[in-house]
Amino acid sequence: MRHLTTLAILLSLAAAAAAQDVIKYKDGSADKEGEVTSLNYKTVEYDIIAGNRIKQQEDAKKVAEIVVDRNQTTFDYNRGASAMEGSDYDGAVEHFGRVTKDVRARDLLKQTAAINVVRSQWMKDNIAGCQQAIKELRTLKPDSFFLKESYEFEIRCSLARGDVAGATAAVAGLEEKGKSDNLPEWAKSADVMRGGLQELQNKWREALAIHRKYVSDKDVGDEAKLGEIRCLTQLKDWPGLTARCEAILSELKGKKNPNERLYTAAFNGRGEVQLNGGKLKEALLDFMQGVAVLNKSGGSSQENETAVARAAYTCTRIALKESDKSKKDTYKRRAQELEGDLKRHYNASKYAAELAKAIAEVK
């Protein structure tokens, strides 16, 4: 299973019917309402309906999301939206797939349906299906409003498969598009994902140098911070990891809608520091913070997968140190419960073998 932030999952899927489509902006500017008539990665065209239709155009790179007017959708679009909101990704793929072929559906619906097929395939761990959906989106609309996101998914798919050549080509494609079309955000995103490519090759210091260039960037800073935490953990730079995680936790504390992946990653990083220092129960408490995110939002992510696995592993380490049989059994049982969660939500987890071995060590 994969994770999308709440914003990405709900993009164009707001449950409450709006009077018109709603355009939301990255800089927090006031929303605009209208009927979106055409959109691509450069421009969003819409009509303001106030008696007469007044045609307007917006720079697409300023737009954060477009919430579709549910009064102007189709049966399959609404069924796909409901399925996706309920984490029924097979149903979402089925119904949104029909929308992309529906001659009655307007441009906004078709494009949104196409990217939601991509997202849904990713969420259900169907890498081949996700790659195919990316091709279909680009065939449907080569200059789609969601083109940048499709490149990012293409890179993630290649990284997930360990396909260095594919990831390298996709990163280069995104970067070149950003440079040729004067879209600096695209080029920055490509560079951060190049850091992910370095991680795939265990080039942790090279990856860390890339991520650190962008940790303060408003567009890609969160992804860069996630990469920095992964690299510092692999390098066992406990002082550096402590400093970064404490800074992130302080920054996110009290935020109304914190980035769940970043929040979880910071607790995971601090948990690793505690585990390395022999503070097992403190480590368990940190890892369990990440476990709670899935229970709260229903979202899954690489960071949540790590939290579940490492919490279970920490339970086994506590159990091994317990002389009291009842307490030992309690921690082993909790590790097994978490192992069940890991198998249920992440059926091909990279942590599975190590965790099974750790549990078997507890007699």
Tell me what the structure shows.
Helix 11 packs antiparallel against helix 12. The protein folds into 3 domains: 1-144, Tetratricopeptide repeat domain (Serine Threonine Protein Phosphatase 5, Tetratricopeptide repeat, Alpha Horseshoe); 162-235, no CATH class; 243-363, Tetratricopeptide repeat domain (Serine Threonine Protein Phosphatase 5, Tetratricopeptide repeat, Alpha Horseshoe). It has a 5-stranded antiparallel sheet with strand order 4-3-2-1-5, with no helix packed on it. Strand 3 (43-50) and strand 4 form a beta hairpin. The two termini are 32 Å apart. By secondary structure, it is α+β, with helices and mostly antiparallel strands. The relative contact order is 0.07. The chain is built from 16 helices and 5 strands.
- What's the architecture of the largest domain in CATH terms? Alpha Horseshoe
Q: Total strand count, please?
A: 5
Percent range for β-strand residues: 5-15%
Q: Classify the secondary structure makeup into a structural class.
A: alpha+beta
Amino- and carboxy-terminal Cα gap? 32 Å
Principal-axis shape: globular
What is the topology, as strand order, of the major beta sheet?
Answer: 4-3-2-1-5
Largest sheet, strands/sense/barrel:
5 strands, antiparallel
| Number of domain units | 3
Fraction in helix: 55-70%
Radius of gyration: 22 Å
Separate helix tally? 16
Q: What is the CATH superfamily label of the largest domain? A: Tetratricopeptide repeat domain
Order of helices and strands: HEEEEEHHHHHHHHHHHHHHH
Average pLDDT metric: 90
Q: Spans with pLDDT under 50 lasting ≥5 residues? A: 5-18
**Overall CATH class of the largest domain:** Mainly Alpha
